[in-house]
Amino acid sequence: MPDHGIHFIHIPKNAGTSIQELTKRLGDGCFLSYHGHGTHPTVLANQPDASDQLIILRDPIDRFCSAVRYGLQEAARYGTDHGDDEMVQQARGMGINEFVESLRAVVDSPPGASLDARQRFVVSEVLNTEHRVGPLRPEWKWTFCTQLVWYAPGQRVALFDSLQDDFELLFRSRGQPPPQHVRANTTPMDLGDLNAASRAWLSGIYRHDVDLYHRYKGMGQHQRLGLTMGA
Question: pLDDT band at 93, cuts 50/70/90?
Fold first, then answer.
């Protein structure tokens, strides 16, 4: 009988696509059930036998930069959904620090303030109009909103930067061969180094994510994954 005892919730930009592909590849032989971006942990836990959950946490600043890389790459390749040529041109010449500066200007602007093309592009990338997580509609899109939206106390937690080791241990604990080449998909694009001012501002914006990530990074692997030391 298939063992689907652990329910994996996919936090965007945190290697969830790799785990989705893993569950598909293993089929009924996999003990993981995949749940997409719109899954709220409390709503899921109310379903029968769905309280045992797993998420992957990522350094919030690294996650933000990955989301920016993806957005700029897509804009350069396909343009934007808004058909604003000036926005597309601004996106093609933008680096990571310029993106942060424009986002900061938008956040600090009064409602109804006039925005330049670069700021309009950032708004189109970040501000949410349709993404939901269960009953919630976060202010920012899935790729930019806080990871806390998908977090609930008691979940098993793997870390993005120790993905292979975490999943090898998890599979061994279930008596299954460890999966090979569990890795995060990356978006190769040189945006320049994040400067100190950008990093400090993002650390403030994502301060609760930063605290959560470092709390789990400071835990032992068995404790994070909800395993006994003999597993």
Answer: confident
